[in-house]
From TrEMBL, chains A, B:
Pfam hit, one: MarR_2
Protein name, UniProt field: MarR family transcriptional regulator
Organism in which the protein naturally occurs: Actinacidiphila acidipaludis
Ranges where the HTH marR-type domain occurs: 11-143
InterPro entries xrefs: HTH_MarR-typ, MarR/SlyA-like, WH-like_DNA-bd_sf, WH_DNA-bd_sf
SUPFAM superfamilies per UniProt: Winged helix' DNA-binding domain (SSF46785)
Domain of life: Bacteria
Lineage: Bacteria, Bacillati, Actinomycetota, Actinomycetes, Kitasatosporales
Length: 153, 153
DNA sequence: TATTGTTATACTCTATAACTATA
DNA sequence: TATAGTTATAGAGTATAACAATA
């Protein structure tokens, strides 16, 4: 007669831990960014654009891992508030060259401060060294397998 | 004149790391469980029920962090394949007492093996000690704040 | 009056398909 | 013929609202 398995706490599953870490962190950063009129997804867009030469919407979408059709509305919102400019790329007029404005850069700076503070609250229960290890472990797990091409998906 | 910020890799953001860790892990575990006819969300249900006394759908839903209306379809599927029984709780006939069958337990055992193997592939790039630290760090971050009630949300 | 399970509905998010303009 | 951006549509997933049975 096989021994019945002991009760498994759902919280033991790595999937549960990672999922709820994501939910918690998103809730924290969304709340921190809300006063600026953006959420954590929008912040990702700013992050991709800041300090870089103008790029096409599709390039930005690839860096974010979203579809190009999803990118349209994201840029729409930033363009409407004067944080991003869209203009046809002179070298290939099918493309939009999107670029952060001064206003967009100022928004990024405020957003970054709010985002970093929210990250800090999320990581507060951990020793700083452990927090660093956590970040590094996630980077390692997500890094492209060694010995193969580094192509983006 | 303020120094322009350097380009930020989106991959530096903790939110990016956690989100994509979740996506990667879910893809791995879903693929590993697919031959059994379940996905990682279904596996969570099995995990909650295994080795425990019969509980109401609402209790199970609370443990999983999903709505009670979402629970209905999850249990429907398991009941249809004879993995879970639903019967009115004699003490409170508003409730369904849901319980794993022998068949459900056998399914859980196979699913657990597949799930653990998928977790292992996810964590493969890490030293075993680092993998343990990662799990522990996530537990710590998600643990209820000390000195307060441990109520579920 | 409140609670459990259920159903129907709505909402969010994102991708797919189709169109346009360029190449 | 292929590609970038756009729009409309559809799908997955999950929550909210309303209802029946029970407490």
């Amino acid at each position: 007669m096989p021994t019945p398995p002991p009760p498994m706490e759902p919280h033991d599953a790595l999937g549960y831990l990672v999922k709820h870490a994501h939910l918690r962190l998103t809730a924290l950063t969304d709340a921190a960014l809300a006063p600026l009129g953006i959420d954590s997804k929008d912040f990702g867009v700013l992050r991709v654009l800041v300090g870089r030469a103008p790029m096409s919407q599709q390039e930005a979408a690839a860096k974010l891992g979203v579809d190009r059709t999803t990118m349209v509305a994201l840029i729409d919102a930033f363009e409407a508030r004067g944080a991003v400019t869209r203009r046809p790329d002179p070298n290939d007029r099918r493309r939009n060259a999107i670029e952060l404005t001064e206003r967009g850069l100022a928004l990024y700076r405020k957003a970054d401060a709010a985002y970093v503070a929210a990250e800090g609250r999320f990581l507060a229960p951990l020793d700083p060294a452990v927090a660093t290890q956590l970040r590094q472990a996630l980077r390692t797990v997500l890094a492209p397998p060694e010995g193969r091409d580094r192509d983006e998906r």
